[in-house]
Write a structure and sequence with these properties.
Length: 385
């Protein structure tokens, strides 16, 4: 068996109502804090209530859309100026990443590009971030248990990561009741992002027995519950199942990496403002088909194709399913959830020339079970268009 390692948030609290226990996570950190909320700050009301009841004070900062480098620099300046000793973020993956980056930059002065991958120098952080607590309101990105923050750099037209083992949250509070009011389209795209994040680590080259266990458990939870929450948004039990699957997906991707869906979705997202989950959902089936075709026709020493077969069985619930059954099942589900094609999202074929080399260089692409190459990536884009 190959050696492996596994790291996650220091503490995970899971379940409806757990947000009320937020103050326990910061009880040993005196002083004021910094609360990062999403576009609709009302959604963080239960967080404020928990802090108020514990007599804590804080400064609030609103994240709108996917965070940029300059936005989180401005946030970290405000966190420093207000004397914040801890950071809490309550929202979707973008808001959690914003909070994670603010907590890191608040203690690491200087040029943020020193620490950024791809467009910067990629140096390690010099100091530990402020203690950071992640409270997700979507069931999708798993950002509450990852060690990176995805930031837009509009001048480079890419999204890049600020990454450090120190950026794993001190606590992840996953309270499914916070996702009850999520709109159907966000439920669908974030749910399919979670599905992709359970599939790619499972078929990828860095899979390990611990993340395999999470993926084998998580994939059927998504198939049993994603359409249920899409149709009945207020069903707490199904929302809880999705929140758990999303948490597992974050743990899996943080420790076993991703693949071509994320490798291509990254640069596409950097060049547009299409939500990450929507892009992943649109690319999911074309990448499945391309990877299986490449594995079937090339050397497959680790028998990654058998991983795809097992994933097809986990998704369909049919122990006799093969990879083609899996692709068909996924395509039907993506259709029922109303995921648009790339052309309907405003992506032009002329942009493919810029996307292909960026996708090839993306860090997620390194986990893909087979090298697709420029031609293979182009075929995926054509199929998703
Ligand atoms: Fe993702």
């Amino acid at each position: 068996m190959n050696p492996f390692e596994f790291a996650t948030a220091t503490r995970v609290r899971f379940g409806p109502g757990t947000v009320a226990r937020l103050a326990e996570e910061i009880s040993d950190i005196p002083g004021p804090g910094f609360l990062v909320t999403a576009r609709d700050p009302e959604r963080a009301e239960s967080v404020r209530r928990a802090l108020r009841q514990a007599g804590r004070t804080w400064t609030e900062w609103r994240n709108v859309g996917e965070p940029t480098v300059s936005a989180v620099v401005q946030g970290s300046e405000q966190a420093k100026a207000s004397g914040s000793r801890w950071v809490v973020a309550c929202g979707g993956g973008a808001t959690i990443d914003a909070g994670k980056a603010i907590a890191a930059l608040a203690t690491n002065a200087g040029d943020p590009f020193d620490f950024l991958e791809v467009v910067g120098r990629g140096l390690p952080l010099r100091a530990r971030p402020l203690p950071f607590i992640a409270i997700p309101t979507t069931a999708g990105t798993g950002a509450e248990v990852t060690r990176n923050a995805v930031l837009g750099s509009p001048e480079h037209r890419v999204k890049v990561s600020l990454r450090s083992p120190w950026m794993l949250p001190a606590a992840a509070i996953v309270d499914p009741s916070l996702s009850l009011s999520l709109p159907a389209s966000v439920t669908a795209s974030t749910g399919l992002d979670a599905l992709t994040q359970l599939l790619e680590p499972f078929v990828g080259i860095r899979a390990n027995p611990l993340t395999d266990a999470l993926c084998r458990d998580g994939l059927p939870r998504i198939t049993r519950n994603l359409e249920r929450v899409f149709e009945n948004p207020a069903e707490l039990e199904a929302r809880s199942e999705m929140a758990l699957a999303s948490l597992f997906s974050g743990m899996a991707l943080a420790n076993s990496g991703l693949g071509a869906v994320h490798g291509i979705a990254g640069p596409l997202g950097g060049m547009s403002d299409i939500p990450h989950g929507t892009l992943c959902a649109a690319l999911l089936v074309p990448v499945w088909v391309a990877n299986c075709a490449a594995l079937a026709s090339e050397r497959d020493p680790d028998n990654r194709l058998s991983r795809y077969r097992e994933a097809a069985q986990l998704l369909t619930g049919n122990p006799g399913a093969d990879t083609a059954d899996g692709a068909r099942w996924l395509a039907e589900m993506v259709g029922r959830l109303g995921i648009p094609r790339l052309r309907d999202l405003g992506v032009t074929r002329e942009s493919f020339g810029e996307i292909v080399p960026k996708a090839e260089a993306a860090s997620s692409m390194k986990g893909n079970p087979v090298r697709l190459g420029p031609q293979g990536i182009r075929e995926v884009l054509d199929a998703a268009w």
